[in-house]
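fyi for ur records
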Amino acid sequence: MEPWMRTRSELFALVTCLTLVGTARADEQGLRRTAALGATPVSAAGAGSAKSALDTAQIEQLTGAKGQLDEKEGVFKVSVPRTDLQPTTAGVKIPTSMGLTSWAAFQRSPGHTMVMGDLVLAEDQVNPVMSVALDSGLEVTALHNHFFWESPRVMFMHIGGMGDEKALASAVGKVFAKVKETAGGKGETPSAQIDPAQSSLDASKIDAALGVKGKVDQGVYKVTIGRTTRMDGAQVGNAMGVNTWAAFAGSDDHAVVDGDFAMLESELQPVLKALRHAGIDIVAIHQHMTGEQPRILFLHYWGVGSTQDLARGLRAALDRTATRVGAR
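which gave:
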């Protein structure tokens, strides 16, 4: 070997040695810092595996839907395209790839699993599916439309939950099964032949159930119950639209009620359950404001039945909130 080649080789070996020593020292220091924080060091591959430690086969089995794992985010998402709906929006035929796929995404978190999803539903499916979701331990967090001018009408219901992976997957499976069961017009559509101008209901029965007196306008008996929140340093309340209201029409035996329910985020699920258990349909869940403290959510509802049953159902929902009303 030529002298210059030997010298170059020796220099290369020396540089390599110094590099390895420096790397080892850096790794040692890093391990010490990790130990000082009380954490267990893992490789990048190990971190990804820990984050996505989901039983994907079990989730597919329990939900009855095929899924796909996002290894980067550790999320397993099952999907059910609503190929049966085939709506037309403003003359445009909407394929499932334009947002007509129900889905539920699962992610592991420390000590539990989280699920979030969006359900694509025909109008008559919304409340039967919502009841199954609530009764199965899931939360319903929003109900709204994504389109204008579509036929048939399509609604979108967002769900969520946190807890045991198997229980969550089973709950989602029950929801997907109810969607399938109620497809093709097999859901629920209430009907009532009522002309508010001909109302004959006894308002005192509504007052007694709700603990609040209302007013009559054009044959409709309306009760309003205010709440308060703060926006931009000012208190806003009933007169600014922060309220729950109910409008009744018809007779004592056969009446309709529609209205708006104002509640805190923590009150949404109990209110939904109370209204659904009373047979009152939910038609929208959303917010009316941004930036308010505490945050106020609103749901809109529709019910058909006797005035007493409807009023008692609403009172049961009110009792799940911090709203102050008179005794029954």
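The chain has two domains: 49-182, 196-318. thats all i got for now
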